Amino acid sequence: MKKYSDWFKVDLHIHTDFSNKIKSNDYDGVFDLEVLKLKLIQNDVKLFSLTDHNIVNNTAYENYYNEYQLGDPILLVGCEFDIRVEQNDNSFLTYHTLLIFDESSAEKANELSCIIENHFLKNNISNSQRSLTEDEIFELFHTYHFFYIPHAGGHKNIINAYKGADIIKAQQMVLLMESAHEKVKEVHRIKHLEGFDKLKDLAFQNKADEAFINFSDNHNCQNYPIPKSGVTHEFYCIKGQPTFESIRFAFIDPKSRIKKHSEVEVLMRFDNFLHSVQFEGNPIIKDTTIYFSPNLNTIIGGRSSGKSLLFNILGKKINNKKSHVDNYGLLTSNAKVKGFLDDDYKPIISYNTHDIIYIYQGEIVNYFENNSLKDLIQESGKTEIYKTSLDFFKTKKQKLSELVDKLIELYSELHEVLNSNFTFHDRDITSILDSSYIFKIISDMEDKADSFQTSAEILNLVLANIEKFKSNENWTFSLEEIDTIKAFKELVESKNNLFENTKNDYNKKENFIELIKQIVSNKNANLDLKGREKESSSQRLTILNKNIADAFKIAMQVQNHCSIFESLSYGEIQEIKINDEVTVILEVENKESIKVKILEGLSINTSDNLSLYQVFIKLALGVIKIKNFPENSPENLIKKTQTQIRGILDLFDAPIEYLKYSEESTSKNNSPGFNSEKYLETILRNGNSKIIFIDQPEDNLGNKFITDKLINIIRDLKFKKQIFLVTHNPSIVVYGDAENIIMCTNSENKIEYEQFVLEEKEHQKEICTVLDGGQYIFEQRARKYNIKKLIQ
Fold first, then answer.
1. What pTM, to 2 d.p., does this model score?
2. What percentage of the chain carries pLDDT values higher than 70?
3. Which of 106, 147, 280, 301 has its CA 20 to 30 A from that of 37?
């Protein structure tokens, strides 16, 4: 038997040939207990009952119990009764119900058989007329613990039996008792629920918490499990150990604990979930092997009982870097683990990073404090978008750096031109106005080097990619389109030839003008003194004009570029949508002005309220100085500026990360508890992991969130992922319907790990002693409806 709650097939409605004593020809064939047992084993049925009509086959029960061996299907005592309902016109209708008792011995089977037989004998009721009222059920069996399972549809169902009577009485009885409903075709289920929900308060309606289950109703053991109708039987499964208490838990929580076998097969896990851990020879941990459920495993215990130690050992054994086990100073080499797909135990199992969520105590709040939601992003499958967003900020940083570099580059040119020679002498004016002649070139050529280079790159790129375009695997061309491509290629080649001719013509003209310039220069060199002096003055005037023109040109460029920084906002946001409720925001905030940071590196009176352009003019002229530098050289300005804006540029390497919620609030303006709730809900609902470890998820979480959301998330998630939770919260364990509870105890510095299940009564007592409020939670679990109203 597995040490955790697992699914098992159950069949509580099987007839024997004793039914023929009550209803003639009811059983088909010859009943053989050994044949039935073999069929049950072949169909992997773990728990069953022999439920004949209004009679108990105590001989069959006695024979089965006498031959019982460990591992055989477990037999609970049961019976199928005809329940008599008086109609409004004083007539009677009957429905069938199963009574399954918390008894599994020949003595109790005989005892119950005697009660039934004595009742019918005492009231002089013949075998064919046997039936009981609901009041008689209570009168006869009130000292026993039993389940009441009426037919909800099909033959002899409870709804039809009450069509001429007060249905409220039936509803009250079924809802107040430990009950389920058998014969559950969907049409019967819907009709049944419509009637029963009307009796409940609104808060208790539409909760899918009434138990529906189907059994074989087999009347021929040779054909088991085919029912008397001859249709194919679909087994139902209950989660837990094959015991009466497991059925009780299933009827209380059918959504988690009752499923068709076909649904259970869909839930079966075949990935390498964590199977077990083995402790041998550990100085502080008692030798044991803990087997893990593929669903929800909760680790509970008192203070210093070894809960977090086990959590961290498991983290170490799955090679998770977040494990803190080294802090305990305990060797873990004598602990070995096994995965579902492993043949034997290993020192360690390495999982892919995205396969595991591992959150230690208080870590969720730290995600926000440390400004990193990378785990959430990765777990939600948004890693590529995250990388793209980070690349976006790197690009923005590069562009901002280039803007600043351009500003310094322009300053360098401005510094150079403003420190050029702007002097023109009287003698130069006299020489220029002198009547002596000189030779001058009256035309010059436009410099087209950059233009030619750009054109050549375009032509080369087009020509290089035409063939790639033509042969690309992702599209095809018609014959007409191929002709178009050919014509386009010929056009490009033609333009390339014309371009080569144009460059040749330009080069010839350029060479000719250079030759003329040389001739003019030679001629002027042979002029008289006055002529040569006039040429020198003319050249100085040309240089002066150029310096002035360059000064105005670069000043305009500096002014235009400085204006960018006057109102520059470098703040950027990238959004990564996790779901409709939560979006991760990556943000670089525009907290400081780049202009202000640059000015803070200069010796300037801020009250002068100068523009950045005015500051750069004064800086180039030496009116303003760079702090801590002897001169205003471009090199010094580069060093100072880089120092001043390094903090701003660094923001782009690590943008702040926070959550934006659907109600437009963000984690920046919400409490740690609220943010933790949103984070945990998001990472659980949207995660791509296969195994989840969380140490005390209730930390920083409100009780309302735990009961309203977290429990439901866990209940849904545990059938898709393996979950390990260290917890003190009884709601998580009980309402979460944990399949495996690992009880941790520490006696005289020796830690012991035991496995408990919720459906075991003795385990329930120990769980209640460890978890504060555990007893209350167990009691509340059974309160599915407004009991007070029903009783009234």
1. 0.75
2. 91
3. 147
